[in-house]
Amino acid sequence: EVQLVETGGGWIQPGGSLTVSCAASGFSVSNYYLSWVRRAPGKGLEWVSVIYAGGKTDYADSVKGRFTISRDISANTVSLQMLSLRADDTAVYYCARVRRNLNHFEYWGQGILVSVSS
Amino acid sequence: ETVLTQSPGTLSLSPGERATLSCRASQSVSSSYLAWYQQKPGQAPRLLIYAASTRATGIPDRFSGSGSGTDFTLTIGSLEPEDFAVYYCQHYDISPPGFTFGQGTKLEI
């Protein structure tokens, strides 16, 4: 059974850093694209970042240069390191597995809240 | 980058009625990369439709997707109480690579 479990969220002051992680089970992160999607309070879904099976990464313009996605194949986890956090980064962050070739989000974690405020 | 515009923003209907939700792309897109999701409060999004018209595993047949080019539609044939939620369309761009969501349609009673 495919499962994705996010950890590491919480409250952080503007300008601070935080890393959220996603533990995958039921498949190997080395064989799939894994992505982060967020939903800010009162807003819609926003794609954040993806790491492809070959290790290449892409980012939304809103986080480029501040966020870094990575994976640990031995631990079967994917992480999102977030630097220079701003109030508008406040959101529930979801880890999601991408269906190969069709590029939609087929499995989702339960989400984790990141709150940026002073 | 493709922009997805969903309409209406809010749709007020009653159980048993038919719902028609629209997703318009700013340029012609591949139907293979067009998906629909449902999200309820406090829950993760759930995949409903992929490749514009294929229902995901376990999705009731009252949900159907159609469209091509720039205009796509999600139809819910006869609304059940559990269908009241927010619905998003999503697309993947090859160049520049990335994923895009529409702003969502809230389906309310």
Write the layout of secondary structure elements.
The complex is a heterodimer of chains A (118) and B (109).
Chain A: E1 3-7, E2 10-12, E3 18-25, E4 33-39, E5 45-51, E6 57-59, E7 67-72, E8 77-82, E9 91-98, E10 105-108, E11 112-116
Parallel strand pairs in A: 2-11
Antiparallel strand pairs in A: 1-3, 3-8, 4-5, 4-9, 5-6, 7-8, 9-10, 9-11
Chain B: E1 4-7, E2 10-12, E3 19-29, E4 34-39, E5 46-50, E6 54-55, E7 63-76, E8 86-93, E9 98-101, E10 105-108
Parallel strand pairs in B: 2-10
Antiparallel strand pairs in B: 1-3, 3-7, 4-5, 4-8, 5-6, 8-9, 8-10
Could you describe the 3D structure shown?
The complex is a heterodimer of chains A (118) and B (109). With 118 residues, chain A is mainly β. Chain A contains no helices and 11 strands. Chain A has strands spanning 3-7, 10-12, 18-25, 33-39, 45-51, 57-59, 67-72, 77-82, 91-98, 105-108, 112-116. In chain A, strands 2, 4, 5, 6, 9, 10 and 11 form a 7-stranded mixed sheet that branches. A 4-stranded antiparallel sheet of chain A has the order 1-3-8-7, with no helix packed on it. In chain A, 39% of the residues are buried. The mean pLDDT of chain A is 96. By secondary structure, chain B is an all-beta fold. Chain B is built from no helices and 10 strands. Chain B has strands at 4-7, 10-12, 19-29, 34-39, 46-50, 54-55, 63-76, 86-93, 98-101, 105-108. In chain B, the strands form 2 sheets. In chain B, strands 2, 4, 5, 6, 8, 9 and 10 form a 7-stranded mixed sheet that branches. In chain B, strand 8 and strand 9 form a beta hairpin. The relative contact order of chain B is 0.32. The model of chain B has no long low-confidence stretch (mean pLDDT 96). The interface between A and B is medium-sized, with 21 and 24 residues.
